[in-house]
Queue: 2 jobs
Job 1
Amino acid sequence: MKYILVTGGVISGIGKGIIASSIGTILKSCGLRVTAIKIDPYINIDAGTFSPYEHGEVFVLNDGGEVDLDLGNYERFLDINLYKDNNITTGKIYQHVINKERHGDYLGKTVQVVPHITDAVQEWVMNQAKVPVDDDRKEPQICVIELGGTIGDIEGMPFVEAFRQFQFKAKRENFCNIHVSLVPQPNATGEQKTKPTQNSVRALRGLGLSPDLIVCRSAKPIEMAVKEKISMFCHVEPEQVIFIHDVSSTYRVPILLEEQGIIKYFKQRLNLPIDDQPSDLLMKWKKMACRYERLLKVCSIALVGKYTKLSDCYASVFKALEHSALAINYKLDLMYIDSTELERSTEAENSVKYHQAWHKLCKADGILVPGGFGIRGTEGKLQAISWARTKKKPFLGVCLGMQLAVVEFARNCLNWKDANSTEFDPDTKNPVVIDMPEHNPGDLGGTMRLGKRRTVFKTENSVLRKLYGDEMFVEERHRHRYEVNPELTHRFEEKGLKFVGHDTEGNRMEIIELENHPYFVGVQFHPEFSSRPMKPSPPYLGLLLAATGTLNAYLQRGCKLSP
């Protein structure tokens, strides 16, 4: 097993996740089996109870793990399926060690950060690195490990110390450290500064880790003189300094790394049994990146949510839309609309914001209402759904988006004016969305219906079934506490809102489709978590096809994309 540790310096959010994913992609393109581990130094057990404004979206895995969004990057880039133990947190490690202490495993000893916590980290990494993540179920050969945060953070110290020890346990030819740093360019001088990188590498060395590669992030391409300066002051060869500037799409990053000789370096440094040249997989990435940059036709989608100030809050949704747009040769124009700004209360408080939000919604080719929790912004989402339904705009509702589509239909088509979800109004006379019987109202962490579940189509006359390749069932990832009230579904079906998919027992409603509408679809699951650059998610692909007016032609071709 070869281990590649990716650390970060100067600032967090520098792009370690994309760089780690890109390195994995390059090595996979050379015919190696690659897995990935993300270490988050926070004390939370998992990411499940975070606000999306804390660390971006919560990504859900097949096994129900609620994890950091970087695991989503790994899955999309490497086309693998990870597990919750591929995300290590301080909370998980300490809980593991404390449980062992209570069990009596350390009887007679003082339990300390060194060696007990550091040993637990190393043991966890070695065990998880062996778990198969590809469809062929073979043990991985390379494990890419991303250490969250920046070098010098107090909460990350036990992990840095663990890897300081681990480099000797694994042996030099099996362990490599990549340090990602920032090369800022102040507007006042326009000069690219190397001092932050020098200080960051010095801090890393002081903690016992020496970088094998220094990846320098910058806004613009870095000059050769800067490369030589970093090489000299950071005690590495010039070919060990890699530059990654801001690019038009993340698909370009693996190509930039490969152009700077990273395959040849890894082959020598880790004694890898590979050729110097990448295989067809990286050629596909190159073609995809070139195609992305040449797109001329534009499709605009309005994303109506309440976490619109930070794009990472809907990272997987954006990627799923982007994958679908690329598949049909369109450039995606994603317009984020804060759902509260569509509400009547905003018109009274700030009419400019209100009208700007509605202007965006009205000019969009399609409307998407993603998942979420809490009552804030729900009335605005209902307004957007009503607009999509009455004006025959292509619409996709995901999780809460589907539930609100049911609420909107009940209020405006069944005339149940107080219809609501018990999440927002526990005393409503028409509870069209209810909490699930197994939902635990006490603890919030890990108590939802999580992970991959089967959805069975109950009719052949379904747009989504055709988009999924006319399969009898699909398996997608879920994350919800509430569900459509199964006792009232017949009332909706009488008026044309069809529940075309349900769970294996037939009690839990999973997919809705509206009759006599170009594309009005709601799904209880989160199809965005399974979307891949070369395998777009069918519900999102359907939305883009409908928004560009090509859905019917696509279905008539037997769900084959035109060349």
Job 2
Amino acid sequence: MNEPYHEEVERFYTSDLKKPPVEKVNVWPCTGGSSSSSGVSFSCPHVFFCLSLLCQIGNLLGHPQCLDYGPPFQPPFHLEFCTAYENFGCCDQERDNSIAAKYWEIMDYIDPQGHKLCGAYIKDILCQECSPYAAHLYDAENPQTPLRNLPGLCFDYCSEFHFNCHSAISLLTSDKHIQECCETNKTRFCNLLNLHDKDYCFPNVLKNTALNRNLGSVVADRKGCLQLCLTEVANGLRNPVLMVHANDHTHRMFVAEQLGVIWVYLPDGSRLEEPFLDIKTIVLATPWIGDERGFLGMAFHPKYRYNGKFYVYYSYMDKKQVEKIRISELKVSASDVNKADPHSERNLLELEEPASNHNGGQLLFGVDGYLYIFTGDGGKGGDPFGKFGNAQNKSALLGKVLRIDVDGKSPDGKPYRIPPDNPFVSDPKARPEVYAYGVRNMWRCAVDRGHPVTKKGRGRLFCGDVGQNRFEEIDIIVKGGNYGWRAKEGFECYDTKLCRNSSLDDVLPIFAYGRNVGKSVTGGYVYRGCESPNLNGLYIFGDFMNGRLMALQEDEKTNKWKKQDICIGNTKACAFPGMISSYSKFIISFAEDEAGKLYFMSTSYPSAYAPHGSLYKFVDPARRAPPGKCKLKPVPVKTKSKRIPFAPRAKTILELLNDPPTTQPPAKSSSPAGVTRTLSSKKAKTTPPTKIKVSAVKPASAGKKTQKIKAKAKYHKPKQKVKVTKVSKTTPAPSLTKK
């Protein structure tokens, strides 16, 4: 590759950009050779250019992605101009109208013959911004590589365009180097626009059935494993057992650690330095690995916005050294909305725990406004308490789902009221608080918000019930239901005598799995958020012991649930800014925020005192909601405590791909720890405003890279109409006078 040609190629990528020296990129090996279409050798001394712009693109591979570094979407309204992408792509109606306006301004400077010859070419080129593969066409998949001026065109198509319309190149780009070198040189021009992946250049990308067959659907590999991505949201947590929101429109997230500390995370990702609540001196927790005791549950009152009440569930040791579970009510501080008042605690219920394990811990409010409490069976193994065990004994509160009304008091003096429609209120042998029974140790339950439009499924209670030694199960809780334990474990008998009892009448799980799949289920959520439409209706859960993520999909005709594994961090599917390729193994809990986005918490060392826990958010790389549909407007809250910015620890997929070779010393960075540096090769040069700009904005998830990136499709109008003529290869190109 000679020096002049290399300079032209690099100018194509860096026109109007101020580009400092860039670190060498260490990616997969890129062997030498020649492009069959261009004849250009790849074995050149320019290491950065060869590796970054050619090899790296091939290794990231093409995947659906827009110029704003997000997945494509289904436009909410019909596209009038770029109609090829009206079902799925990267343009909404506003963007489509902007491209159409640009097209007609360009065509105003082309003569009638040029309209016929070049109109379709110019439209195609402009509309590639709407392609679901726009980022690949413009080399925008990796924020550390510069954007192209023009989209990648297949060589044959490019040759036809250049043969018929080379005089229009100056209308599509203001790059003088391209105009000077390429208006008369088809080979050079088409080499510049050539893509390393022949399948992804335009128009081949439209014809490739493999790329377009399931475009917009959740990606699954050959084994049916759903390909999802993750972003790191928080880290350094000590066994994070839950994350909840207050449903007060502030979009704050409250994350609780097992030892009894609750932190406040703000919508901008920062954490307040002072905790919302710190009761670690009361909570019974130890540094022992796998100890199930501690702070286990929390739920905000449905009217928290008005009454400031919330509820907690934790282990503690009473004065007589008896281990107990306490469920109590607290209030937010009158002087600080981000602090609870620890002196406001009002005990609702205390249960003596006969063993240190199987402590339950879930608190949640149903759509009926009542508080649901999920207790464990008392511990040890096989529920050995009494003739039938705690779980089958309706006069015991262990091994149950309880339902109480926290807004009233009972005539007998209890600090809560019994809902009048509780199933066993008229049974003298049962506790009136019991809503369902026969559960072993339900760990993490959630209320289904229901379908966003039809509300189907709203109010269903999903729970993961940890098994004894054979099966883990997922249940949907119904009023008065007997979930079988200890008679059954999953679908199978555990206690043969109890299992054969004709009066058992137990509710079977919607799904159960054996020890070949996992050893300790962690219940999850039905996704009902706005950001990832493909995930709507999927129940996503996991296994604590082996870190496996899974999803259940309901067949509405048969009411059966089908399980699929979830695979995280695929290099091809998740090559987006901010996406990570791995997570800590021990999955402790799942959560959803106020907008319905789905998260999970896990740790690499399951001790209540070890700060190795992290919070992750699920992302569907195949499809997102249209821009603006999920826009949040959090109610601002006054903060008295210092804000601690989020500092990511996990390396993103793009960082891993762009890591310099281990033989080279890492470049020094003046950036703060945990903050992604902005490469000045991506900064847009300040230019005078023009009537039409094509811009791509990096999302906030890209860290500091939030400045607008001007796509290089700018143009300068000539003073007069351009006569576009069909010329032969030897005919000199007509000159274009620019304004």
